[in-house]
Amino acid sequence: MSFRSRVRPVAFAAIIALSAWTGPASAQDAAAQFRQAIESALGSVATRTNNQVEARTSRPIEVRVEGGVATATLPDLMVGPRGAAEGLLIGTLTVTQREVAPGRMRYEAQLPREMRVQAPNGRNTTVANGGGQFAAVVDPQSGLTHELNVRVENLAVRPEGRPGSLAIGLFEIASAINQGADGLAQSPARIALRSLDFRHEDGRQALQIGEIAVSGNGQGFRIADLERLRAAFDQAQRGPQAEMAGRMIEALFNFPFAELSGEISVAGITFNDGQGTPAFQLARASLGEVLGPLHQEETRLALRYSHEGLVLRQGMVPYQQYVPSQVTIELAADKLPAAALKRALGSGLRVGPDGMPTQLSGQATAELMAAVFRSGATLRMAPIQFASPALGATLNGSIAANGNSPLQAVAAGELVIRGLEAIQREFGGGNANQQGSPAAVIAMLTALGQQGTGSDGQPTRSYRVELNEQGQLMLNGSDMTALLGPMGAPRSPRPTRPAQGQPTQPPAAQPPATPPTAQTPPTPPAQPAQPAQPQQGGKGQAATPTPAPTPAPAPAPAPAPAPPQRAQPTPTPAQPAVPVPPQQTGKGPQATPPGGKGAQAQPAPRGK
Fold first, then answer.
1. Which of 23, 555, 569, 571 fits a 20 to 30 Å CA distance from 76?
2. What is this structure's pTM?
3. Are the C-beta atoms of residues 11 and 191 closer than 8 Å to each other?
4. What is each CA distance from 556 to 561, 603, 607, in whole angstroms?
């Protein structure tokens, strides 16, 4: 079936749940109030889709009231593109309303046994079911849905005049808002599809899924705050498209709650491509998250992905024995800067013409990362596991932002690999001396790992890793900092800046000099009196009266110890054999470094 890009045909139950019966109550009679609520719900479909999709009936809605129950008949209800003939033709629908508590209305409906999707090219599709019910408990004043239940059995989608089909044994939607004695509420919700069977038009491809489930829960909130959030979302959807995302983000970050959780899971997947045995099988896969409060300075986030029982037909992919049949990835982040994230999204989030976010500006991203380092955010991996018939790996560890580290982080963890020897036998036949080759990488991993035995008796290699605040990388107790390059060099205290022209360290032949005094900061006193280093001389070799220069920089043993003995009790430089009074001004030829012009003006004798 084909539709316009923004068309999403839905059952009438979903329309009511989305619209939340926003029509306000008035002093009219029950029938008029009910009609107004339904018309408001149908009208909100167009409002919330930027007038691209609408819900309409072929005739005016009929309402009657008997014994406190209002009944509305919606003739030939249809949901589709505005002003177009295509869409989902639900048919005539009957909805009832009754009050179940002060300010709480319960709405119920029976779905027609047969509906039709009308496509613009005339290729229609029939949607049949064995029985469908809808029920919702709504507060008409706030528009909040306190309970929602949708159940459709034996749903079958069959294109008219074409092969192919989709069958769903059971479709369910269930949600509720439950308030505790402490005034805080939770709202569990679940959407499930069971026994899904899809047959392609070519008659060869088929997909079976035992269950698809989407579940979620919000905890630790007040109903009044939830009503304000719903109203803010509704106002954002009715406002300009370019402002919708920003307004919804602002409302969400201002909503006080304790925790939001969600999970998507699938089970019992089998895909056949018409070539005998199934091409793909998966026992189960799930993706879940847990998010902490967003209205505080810091929050937390946990993510989990797992799958098991993955089986591919032989020959589907190369090196199939290394494809992980089982995977578990658990990540937990603490001390995330929620307030900084809100500021970054508020100031740097860019949206498209339809109001949907596109990207975060570079400045906002940089400010957010700086906030992450200030907060000391921590990411824990406990665990990350991969398992295949020939290879397995398990990683447990943590990494924390740290502004004092050269790498802006500290970390610790352990990696255990099973089957590395088998990989070495299969891929280690190449040139292990060629840097970057698979054989070289495997050889390095094997050499660095610590040998052991796993719980299944298979040989393992383990790697205990630590990255400390000084930028030092330790692997199984050995210092591997050199692997990090300049970024991992440990930070040392900043040295005192030497005087202009003075080397950072004295030459090997020069005895240690006393620190320069305040009277001689610009003069490099340690240079002129190096008796054993004639190679420093250029013009003016007379300043170092060594009889014959030698290429070896060996120190002269006799004169070296004498100058420091006379220089110790005085604040003058360490070479007393050189006249120092002219150097105190830092002017004239005396201040010229050795080997330069003016060096002949320093008639220093050999110091003995």
1. 23
2. 0.71
3. no
4. 10, 19, 11
